[in-house]
Specification:
With 83 residues, this protein is mostly helical. The chain is built from one helix and no strands. The radius of gyration is 35 Å and the shape is rod-shaped.
Length: 83
Amino acid sequence: TKKQLSDLDKRYQNLAEAHHMIGEEQDNLQKQVSQLQQKNNELQQQNNELKQQNSDLKKKNELAAERTQVVLQRLTRIDQAEG
């Protein structure tokens, strides 16, 4: 009986240590999850900012293309008037 009690005590100690280690690992993983969520939020914000910048640049590019077309048309008229 004493041997069984000793074996059960050892088993309990091993299980307690394993439980403690699992708890620490779970805490570490939860910290990693939180850090990854924070990083993901930051990257999403940066992505949204870049999308806005891209949209603004596209609008400016379209406007520049329109202005270039107007200038080319005026230059063509000037060339035709001189010719």
